[in-house]
Amino acid sequence: MPGKVVHFELPADNVERAKTFYMKAFGWEINQYPGMPIPHGRHHTIEQQGMPTEPGAINGGLTKRQDPNKNIVITIDVPDIEASLKNIEKLGGKTVKKKEAVADMGFTAYFKDPEGNIIGLWQSARRM
User: Fold this and answer.
1) Is the torsion defined by CA of 109, 113, 119, 123 positive or negative?
2) Percent of the chain whose predicted confidence (pLDDT) is above 70
3) In which region does residue 116 sit, left (phi positive, over 0), alpha (psi from -120 to 50) or beta (all else)?
4) Are 102 and 36 in contact (CB under 8 A)?
């Protein structure tokens, strides 16, 4: 179902320090995956495609704190990033990072909502 939150990003001034903290504090498994710019964390069982098997669970990653991600970002699943960004802009939002590929898994983009929040968009390369 499109529109659900599927990912989160935790920005950090020191990514290694944050990685150690979340691994020790919550038992998260955090790894650097090939083709991924950020260490990716998971705290539950995942299937082969990398999606959580536990209902309602999402994965996330750590990222260097920099524009546009200076605060925690949630990412919303959409069927078409370009169409979503056009609609977001009609509704008063603003694109802050255009669509770009994430390894061979899909695409991401970022927008600012009318309240100033930065939100991520995700378009899977493998639509079911």
Assistant:
1) negative
2) 78
3) left
4) yes
